[in-house]
User: What shape does this take?
Amino acid sequence: MKSMDGVSASDIKAHLFHDGRLYECYRFFGAHQMEQDGRQGFRFCVWAPHAKEVRIAGTFNGWSGARHQMERHQEGIWELFIPGIGEGELYKYEMITAANETKLKADPYAFFSEVRPKTASITYQLAGYPWGDRKWQKKKKQKNVYEKPISIYELHVGSWKKKADGRFFTYRELSETVIPYVKEHGFTHIELMPLTEHPFDRSWGYQTTGYYSPTSRYGEPHDLMYFIDQCHQHEIGVIMDWVPGHFCKDDHGLYLFDGMPLYEYSHEHDRENWEWGTANFDLGKREVRSFLISNALYWIEMYHIDGFRVDAVANLLYWPNRPQAEANGFAVEFIQTLNEQVFAKDPHFLMIAEDSTDWPLVTHPTYAGGLGFNYKWNMGWMNDVLTYMEASPEQRKHLHHLVSFSLMYAYSENYILPFSHDEVVYGKKSLLHKMPGDYWQKFAQYRLLISYFTLHPGKKLLFMGGEFAQFDEWKDEEELDWYLDDFDMHRKARMFTKEALHLYKKSRILYENDHRQQGFEWIDVNNAEQSIVSFIRYGKQPGEALIIVCNFTPSVYHEYQVGVPFQTEYIEVLNSDDVKYGGSHQINPKRLQAKAGVLHGKPYSISMTVPPLGAAVFRAVKKRGAKKG
Assistant: This one.
């Protein structure tokens, strides 16, 4: 259709695409069912500016592309309507390159693909799924995202559980098992390792060929919609790993798409990601920005995704293969525009940077010079804490700074504390196995680690299997070691993780002030000789406080004195050494009455039993007129 000045809607979309501002590319490119001249069929559209000719080959023409030659339009956009074909047809683009080579390429905008190792795209109509998550969408908007509890269960769909014959669970089958389990254990979100189509199982989805196509390993697109919908109806948010930095180099994918570099950088030293065997997106090319930003908005619009964990941000921010770290200005501009567009679409969305660099202002708004994410993984905290916990209790007094250093910068960004798949694979050992000592001590320190993780400022992420202290590291081709639930200590470890996460979820003190420095105060951070740290988490209301004491040695301390801010009683609400969790039961069953007298800079103190290799948490009993000293 032409407008009054003779410019068609397609012309406008093409202009925006080439300008990097077409943020609904998936509605223009790809295969779309429509009616033309009274006939039903599919319209195909692809960008291939270097191709001499583009044809469509598929099941509908015996894979003979000569019958369906596409028409070239402005600046390398090719288009063709094929009447009489419906859903479920296999197809590829047949590229005749400038070198007269013929390449068969999957559709970059395909909504569905063949199950690997096959690689064809499939015509599919996304519309029509009956979403039932209106209540979730409304509730999501009712509170500031920074003041909500966020505890994320990181999930690899292919290895969570498998059927008796070794086959994968489908998206729909998964919803019947994962969702009740996640909800029971107190997690608020599921983070799905990449579900975009990918050829190699052991890439875990991080080497993508189909950015708009959820992998067919586990079912059809509507099946994934059903899974997400069911999560929402059970008040579980869904975060998806998203990889905008690099892509798989398999022949049918984006690599040298029309015979020449198109989605990737032209120069080899910029293009090649030799560590991963992939190609880096050319983020200076405006059409690539349209493609990627549209992809982010596509998952929000079509699949109701609640957040992205943006993979390998360091690989985006710095030019690869250069002797010194050199910032990539194209990538910075892309990231800022991406975040602006995502939050314009959904202000309550989670944009989480998996960033291992010290780049400043990652979670600050773009108008203030920041990258515009609203969360960042705290890789420094994770590395420090795991290094400390892997040391023997005798060595820890020499490494005491590793427990406390994170609070020097904890409020410079909005952080998520991640115990992710990266920490429990490739010989790194599981969380439990990292712990030194005998069998009992390993479990005690595992519970202590989970305690510190839960009680430290920052939102939470735990990789599957970590909740029941899996002993072996993650085996990506097998299901989790569910048989461990038959063992008493693993069953009790799972109970402890569940109760710790529920304490976090129901205690406003532990999440409302996550990003405000006034919500945290050290009691005693300098007790390196005994390897004990104590601190306070304050609530927003007067008199709200949790007192936390963590002992990183096997010694028990009775009548241990801790300074406290209020003259009231203190009730122990969690003790990782409780016998029901597998501990030695060095607990504090009675209320502790604060006594006047300055200690640790606080006006009052309480006397407690400090458990071995354990954590104890006390809640201040709010009393009318109680004053903070």
